[in-house]
Amino acid sequence: MKIFLSWSEERSKFIAEALRNWLPNVIQVIEPWMSKEDIKSGGRWSPEIMTHLESSKFGIICLTPENQNNPWIMFESGALSKTIAQTFVCPLLFEMNPSEIVGPLSQFQANQFDKDGLFRIINSINHALGS
């Protein structure tokens, strides 16, 4: 199963990179995808992102105070939530509380970037995998 990692700005990029490297060690059957790492040099980024948004069942939105209103974060979150009937959009909050999320992202169950939050996301990924 593909996991789309959405990020914007330096801190959230760092978190997305760490998740891209860590997640396959926890659940071997998943394929994390991150634009910075997985679009080859010289590739056209827009069609690549669209292809992966359409084919991903699960997205982790790396959210920080400085990027929560970023247009690309909003676009990718919206695209993830509309593509497949049973999609999961999981905001992962760094230095934020769920009550600080404003706008459309506030409708999704968010998790903080800590041991418990990552555990909940791993459980959601397992649930999305099914049997």
Describe this structure in words.
By secondary structure, this protein is of the alpha/beta class. It has a single domain (2-37, 45-129), classed as Toll/interleukin-1 receptor homology (TIR) domain (Rossmann fold), CATH 3.40.50.10140. 46% of the residues lie in helices and 17% in strands. It is globular. It starts with a strand and ends with a helix.
Keywords:
single chain, 131 residues, alpha/beta, Rossmann fold, five-stranded parallel β-sheet, globular
Describe the structure concisely for a colleague:
This protein has 131 residues and is α/β, with parallel strands linked by helices.
- Taken from the alpha-carbon principal axes, the silhouette is globular
> What is the CATH class name?
Alpha Beta
**What integer value in Å does the Rg equal?**
14 Å
Give the beta-strand count. 5
User: Per CATH, which architecture?
Assistant: 3-Layer(aba) Sandwich
CATH superfamily: Toll/interleukin-1 receptor homology (TIR) domain
Chain-averaged pLDDT: 90
Regarding quaternary structure, what we see is single chain
**Order of secondary-structure elements:** EHEHHEHEEH
Q: Please, how many domains? A: 1
Main sheet specs: 5 strands, parallel
Question: If strands are numbered along the chain, what order do they take across the biggest sheet?
Answer: 2-1-3-4-5
Instruction: Write down the CATH topology.
Output: Rossmann fold
